[in-house]
Amino acid sequence: MNKYLNKVIKDIKKRDGKEVEFLQAVNEVLTTVEPVLEAHPEYEKLSILERITEPERMVMFRVPWVNDKGKIIVNRGFRIQFNSLIGPYKGGLRFHPSVNLSIIKFLGFEQIFKNALTGLPIGGAKGGSDFDPKGKSDMEIMRFCQSFMTELYRHIGQDVDVPAGDIGVGGREIGYLFGQYKRIKNAYEGGVLTGKDIIYGGSLARKEATGYGLLYFMREMLKANKQSIKGKTVIISGSGNVAIYACEKAVQMGSKVVAMSDSNGCIYDANGIDLDCIKEIKEVKRGRIKEYLDKHPKAKYMESSAHNKPIWSIKADIALPCATQNDITLEYAKQLVKNGVIAIGEGANMPCTNEATEYLLSKGVLVAPAKAANAGGVATSAIEMSQNSMRFYHTFEEVDKKLEQIMVNIFNSCQQAAKEYGCAGNYVSGANIAAFKKLAEAMKMQGIV
User: pLDDT, tens digit, for every residue of 115-172?
Assistant: First the structure.
């Protein structure tokens, strides 16, 4: 390993050794950009790696709120403003009990590279809370969101930092957050949050964007390797926004989705998933995926746990992990390869462990990495920001066309970078290299800041 690279990784491990997810994300990126460091020795003198792996600002704060029983609850809030080299900070908010500093830092670090790949002027950030929206009433969620925004508003703005949704933060939560921001600021800053409802400044095609973008990237990757998505069997982990619209676009492209999941279990329907049923359960009832059996009793339901995810044992041509980080471990990767999978499309952030990714690549499986393949969501958020600035709105078709072109451009960037640095066909390395080069050059131009 390059001496400079080795030293930086060792220093980060020493300083941030307990932040497991962050270390994983850093290691995955830095080990793939070694050829760039060899070609640009000046990056060491400029401490590019040290600066790109350290957030510009980290904010942690308490979030007190009152539940329906009158009990005061205190959660912890985060906003990691990682990098503003190419635009205002941009990245989602995650509300989930697993949220901690390590997870928000890893997500923020990934976001820098993802946003750079879009070609749009947006920097990288991430935030959230260990608050769990599951089982909470609308009033409890509103009170939490208002308390969260009462602190967060100090650190964001449409030209400073623009949050969006992530796990646990959908249209309902964005609405409550935006309402409180507007109330505190006494101004309508439409571009301060993205993922808004269309009736108060949101963009058409935003909720579909991450899932659709994943399939646009997958289509280009398969095409470049003389394959087609048409006629392929697909399994998708998750049943949230990304998974639902990945399923929708996969079916539109002629494939058959046979399995989806949530945190409790997965369903397998050999005839193809009834997406309208999934949408009813998840988007309307906010229920559990097991309820699919009420309408489709011949489908199979399998319980899941932290150490047992049966969805990855289902035979398929394409696997789309769209749930959460480290969904596919080395063990599951081996099972997927054994069952003949030809491609993995990462709809979630870092859904494959580093060991799983290495194994999949070694076996010739095509891997569409998250920071490239799921960039459609943030790209469309940037389109939403531009519409807010212009006080003008595009049609669904216009946004979808822009999204498709962005995803094609991202794929071409990854493919070109991989070829240029001797790892053709490895889109994981290609994505990291393409984004890293752009960020490093911007860092050179802006001085020691």
Answer: 999 999 999 999 999 999 999 999 999 999 999 999 999 999 999 999 999 999 999 9
Contact of 50 with 59, CB cutoff 8 Å:
no
Q: Are 153 and 108 in contact (CB under 8 A)?
A: no
Residue 177, both tokens = 């957050």
User: For residues 40 and 4, is the Cβ–Cβ distance under 8 A?
Assistant: no
Tell me if the pTM is above 0.90: yes
Could you say which of 126, 249, 371, 438 is catalytic? 126
| 316-368 per-position pLDDT tens digit | 999 999 999 999 999 999 999 999 999 999 999 999 999 999 999 999 999 99
Of residues 128, 133, 74, the one with CA closest to residue 104: 128
Number of separate domains in the chain? 2
Residue among 108, 72, 93 nearest 148 (CA): 93
How far is Cα 128 from Cα 173, in angstroms, rounded to an integer? Answer: 12
Active site residue 126: yes
Question: Can you give the residue range of the structural domain that contains 360?
Answer: 207-373
Helix (H) or strand (E) holding 358: helix 354-362
Which residue in this structure is represented by tokens 């290691």?
A: 27
What would the two tokens of residue 321 be?
């992990």
Domain of residue 219, CATH code: 3.40.50.720
